[in-house]
Every structure is written in C-alpha cells, then in structure tokens.
Amino acid sequence: MNINELSNNFIKEIDNNVSLIIKVLNLDFESLINKFNKIPNERKDEVLEFTINKLLEELKSKITIDKYKLITRSVDEITDYYASKKSNFDVILEEGDKVANDLLFKVIGINKRVIELPLKLETIKDYCLSSDIKEELISDTLIWIIIRYITILKCV
User: Fold this and answer.
1) 72 pairs with which residues across the strands?
2) CB within 8 A of 25, min separation 6: which ones?
3) 112: exposed, middle or buried (C-beta count within 10 Å: 0-12, 13-18, 19+)?
4) Residue 99: φ, ψ to 5°
C-alpha cells in the first residue's frame, strides 16, 4: 500500500469511530419516555414493576459488590450519554441512581440488608422515592432505574 492508501484507511477508521461517538453522544431520554408513553396507561405500572423485578432477578445472580465496584465508573460513563431538556432531569438522575443502587444492594444482601423479590411498584413509590420526586416524575425516575440496571448487566 502506498502512503495515500494507508492514510485514507486510517482516516476512514477514525471517521467511523467518531461517527459512532456522535451517534450516541446525546442519547435522548425523552425518546424513551415517548416510547413508554405509547404503552396503554392501565399497563404502565405493570410493565415498570415487571421490568424492574426481571432485571433485579438477573442481577442477583450475576453481580457482587466487588464486581459492582469494578464497573461503577463504566456504568456512570455510559448513562452520562443520556441527555434531556426535561425540567428536573438532574433530580431524576440523582434519585434514580440512589434508589437503583439501594434496591440492588438489598437484593444482593450488602451489609446484611435484604429485600425479597418480587417488589411491588407501590412499595418502591411509597418507601424508596423521596419527596423530591413529584408525581409527574415518578415514571421517569423508574425508567432511569431500568436504564441503570440494563447498563450494569451490559458491563458485568
């Protein structure tokens, strides 16, 4: 190969990498909310409850606190790609991360704190979410918890 071909191949590789980064740079949380909102209203809570329990059940058999500590930075970096113009998005992220970790740690028995599965969605809403989460942000926060769990599973 001549220098021009080598250079072009190198440029093409970098261009492909940058294109991938740009594609995920601003994953849109709002688009996930919009997809969720297409679920019939009477089924939304059922879907959230089932999904959270399904993911926690899978995590229970795949993660330990030591594994979690190894991947936590990667999980944070991946979820940082989600962008949103939604008001109170920072509150959703902070609360979602806190609740996701608390439930996960209880499911895997950290510090002898244990919670049995399946969890009722009403229990999460009533006892796990703080008063900072207004009613209209509850579903968004629960979806953020699901994003965290899926990301953790991908990183394990």
Assistant:
1) none
2) 81
3) exposed
4) -70, -40
CA 67 to chain centre: 17
Please report, for the chain, the start and end positions of each structural domain, with discontinuous segments joined by +.
26-155
Alpha-carbon distance of 88 to 53, in angstroms, equals 26
**Cα gap 100→148, rounded to integer Å:** 7
AA identity, residue 66: D
pLDDT at 49 > cutoff 90: yes
Calculate Rg over the CA atoms of the chain: 19
Confidence check: pLDDT of 74 > 90: yes
C-alpha 141/C-alpha 116 separation (Å) is 21
Ramachandran assignment for 27, one of left (phi > 0), alpha (psi -120 to 50 degrees), beta (any other): beta
Residue type for position 84: S
- Amino acid at residue number 4: N
User: For 61, what's the count of Cα atoms within 13 Å in the CB-facing half-sphere?
Assistant: 6
Q: Give the span between the Cα atoms of 117 and 1, in whole angstroms.
A: 60
Q: Give the pTM.
A: 0.89
Give how far the C-alpha of residue 74 lies from the chain's centroid of Cα atoms, to the nearest Å: 12
Distance CA 36, CA 13 (A): 36
